[in-house]
Amino acid sequence: MGPALSESSLHPYDWDDPPSRLTAPRSGRAMSSGTVSPANADDPLAPTTGHGPLDSMKAVHHRRLRPLEGKPPGTLLVHEIYRSLQGESTFAGLPCVFIRLTTCHLRCGYCDTPHAFTQGEILSLDAIFAQAIELGDDLVELTGGEPLLQPEVHPLMSRLADAGKTVLLETSGGVDTAPVDARVRIILDIKTPGSGEAGANVWSNLDRLRPMDEVKVVVCDRRDFDWAAAIVRERELHRRCPVHFSAAFGSVSPTELAEWILESRLPVRLQLQQHKILWDPSARGV
Ligand code: SF4
């Protein structure tokens, strides 16, 4: 489990200190800052009212959802919609339409999408669906931020599946996946101690994994690797679905991680952050 979350541990790009710039993506378009009004009634992270550490953590998480306050029902706060190559699953290398939703309740130390914490545009499900269909690829991924923080993502995913799309959902592992349409392939993160967010893992999500789903672990150091390897072994995750280990950019070299995987004899896959190899590591919309 990760360290207890406190106000002082907040990532620099928190709600109160959002990134000030948003550059256009390589393809597709980025959205402008959204405007919102009354509170969203379907809050998936509604805080409890006690005073323990868990309640403090939930309160911090809840505060980070402020960009969603007042979003009209039936809409989504969208950061960007664009085409690129899928890079973080067994679908890696295939052209894919990405729908990146705004906000995340977590603040992983290695996060490369802090611009999606607060910036976005409110769009109707019809408008998002139309853009995804127009971009044309058979593969569509919902990502973020954390896409499951907006309940309207569920009817959108179902509609895309109805249209014959292969729908991927990339989720932090910090939100319950039970309501996800059975046709959607879930790429589930397990947050390690090195991420700073291991305390947010919803462990029951692992019980729901199917062969069509995938697990992803971003490894920050050797301690993370050993921690994650123990979970994979104990829960036999590698027998249930593909499991990917990825090196946190700038913390662990992929070569080092490859050696740890070989040494462990665990049948997990080394995942390279393809978009950081193909394009500038700081590029957006790729
Ligand atoms: S869950 Fe994803 S989007 Fe959220 S902070 Fe972590 S890496 Fe960033």
Summary keywords:
single chain, 19% strand, 23% helix, 10 strands, 286 residues, alpha/beta
Helix content: 10-25%
End-to-end gap: 32 Å
Main beta sheet: strand number and arrangement? 10 strands, mixed
**CATH topology category name:** TIM Barrel
Q: Ranges with pLDDT <50 over ≥5 residues?
A: 1-41
Mean pLDDT: 85
What's the number of domains? 1
Radius of gyration: 18 Å
Sheet/helix structural class: alpha/beta
Oligomer: single chain
The helix count comes to 7
Query: How many beta-strand runs?
Result: 10
Rough outline: globular
Following the backbone from N to C, one meets helices and strands in this order, namely EHEEEHEHEEHEHEHEH
Say which molecules are bound, naming each kind only once: iron/sulfur cluster
- Examine the secondary-structure arrangement and name the CATH architecture: Alpha-Beta Barrel
Approximately how much beta-strand content do the residues carry?
15-25%
Q: What is the fourth-level CATH superfamily?
A: Aldolase class I
Q: Class, according to the CATH hierarchy?
A: Alpha Beta
Strand and helix map with partners:
Elements: E1 29-30, H1 53-63, E2 75-85, E3 95-101, E4 121-124, H2 125-135, E5 139-143, H3 153-162, E6 166-171, E7 185-189, H4 204-207, E8 214-219, H5 222-235, E9 243-247, H6 254-264, E10 269-271, H7 274-278
Parallel strand pairs: 3-5, 5-6, 6-7, 7-8, 8-9, 9-10
Antiparallel strand pairs: 1-2, 2-3, 2-4
Helix pairs in contact: 2-3
The protein binds iron/sulfur cluster (SF4).
Iron/sulfur cluster is lined by residues 104, 106-108, 111, 113, 144-146, 172.
